[in-house]
Prior knowledge:
The chain has helices at residues 3-10, 15-51, 99-103, 113-120, 163-170, 187-193, 227-238, 255-258, 269-277, 290-297, 315-344, 350-360, 368-385, 411-427, 455-478, 489-504, 508-521, 526-539, 542-555, 560-572, 576-589, 594-604, and strands spanning 55-61, 80-84, 124-129, 176-181, 196-199, 219-224, 250-254, 286-288, 389-394, 430-439, 442-450. The chain is of the alpha/beta class. β10 and β11 form a beta hairpin. The chain starts with a helix and ends with a helix. Mean pLDDT is 89; it is low at 481-489. It comes from Quercus rubra (Northern red oak). It holds the Pfam family Amidase.
Amino acid sequence: MSKAVKVIQANASNPKLLIALGIGLAAGVVILTETRRRRRRRANAAAQRKDFGAFVVRFELLPFPQPPPPAARLPLSSLTFAIKDIFDVKDYVTGFGCRDWERTHEASEKTAVAVTALLKNGATCVGKTVMDELAFGITGENRHYGTPTNPQMPSCIPGGSSSGSAVAVAAGLVDFALGTDTIGCVRIPASFCGILGFRPSHGAVSMIGVLRNSQSLDTVGCFARDPSILHRVGHVLLKLNSMEPRRARRLIFADDLFQFSKVPTQKTLNVVNKAIENLSGYQPPKHTNFGQYIGSNVPSLKQFQEPSSNLQNGTSTLKALSSVMVSLQRYEFKTNHEEWVNSVKPKLGPDVSNRVLAAINTTHENMKILYKVRTEMRAALQNLLKDDGILVIPTVADSPLKLNTKKGLSAEFHDRIFALSSIASISGCCQVSIPLGKHNDCPISVSFITFHGADKFLLDTVLDMYSSLQEQASIASNSVHLPDTNGNMDASELLKEKGNAAFKGMQWNKAVKYYSEAINLNSTIATYFCNRAAAYLELGCFQQAEEDCSKAILLDKKNVKAYLRRGTARESLLHYKESAEDFKHALVLEPQNKVASRAERDLES
């Protein structure tokens, strides 16, 4: 019998002592419970630090037996991989990143076809990874399981929805990992975490045993640090023949899309251009304004463009394309999961909750037009790329956001990232995101896209170019930029006048040339930069126009034209907030300026 019980029995007639003992016992229970809770929290935090918070559950699925000699060694022997918590594994509940989903569903009876294929080829699966709830986010944050830590930038989001898989690879916890890509859910985290990310052609990899978000957009995708591993995994998933004749490659740079990116083209376009100079089998690169091309070759997109939009040179077309992608995802998610959402009313994080609510409340009278855009988009890409073309674009436009951003994702962040991710999502084409080092301590990347069904061609190209790309990225990162030099004042004014004459004659490139020569001679005149910005706007070079206007404003803070032109450039780059500030500043300087007033009204509407 314990001492506490003996004391209670001996003093049963003393109520005050009994009350004191009861309070003491209760306090002891509270302290013990709190101590245990703190220990669990510390243990969970330690476990999260150990695996970067990437995993929902750890287990081990061993590979199928290696066939005896003289059979060849299995292609994925000795490699480990993780899978997003959207893939079925026999005897485990597929959680879909959501506790309420896990609670309301039974354990799977079979393992997903894609996972089984990897096991059959020698790889070992070591667990399931964290994801955005219901695969409906792009940040990688999860209120139930925590947010995986981005190894490249621990204070920033890893990107999603396949966040845990990307982090597991970037942290070196596994050799490769599976995710799914709907609206960028592999490509975005690959870029933010500085690793390779592959979205195969739509329908090329089996989705049997994978939970659906939007079946017209969903694909199985994968991450890797090593291009040779990505190549091998891709061959297994796609069931490719390893032997195929080598063909010439033709890179096509989407110049207008690189205007969205804040990374200097020296670290992206120039790196790719330099990388192919010493490689055989590559034709001289071509350049295109992709937004204009799509606007001309996907006629059904016109129904999704804003009637009052004053965006130039294809930007409104790309916004329309991303609008189609979001609408299609919402419609199909509602079809797949409306009954479950309404009956369970799951507890979701704020960003995902808003997306799910928008999907459930969506109404589309004419869904056929969405699928028509998809068909036209695939045909347009096939026509552009033929059988040897590879489109080069930035994977993302912005750096990863800070964790727990209170204001959430801005409209312009969504617009810019979806304008890029919608190209492969809507067309169903294959895409690989390729890391190219860092800019201002943030990972940067480019993406290669080729036509639907050319997955082997794309993977072979990435494997062929990867070493050269990394070499050139390192050179670009370490290069030093020389400042402009001042020159003769009279000569620079003469060049400015020549630039003005070329501008009036609508010879935009020639105008840029003359203004640039004037700047090289004298870089202290705001008008030179402001005039060159006007020519850049006409050419659709919005980033260069923005930079020139910023330089003009530094030289002359009362230059109204510089604010107006920078506002126009920023609006075209989907920086709405900054654009509105420029137009407001112009109105402060010139309250009666009609251009600024009209532009400000358009942005507010």
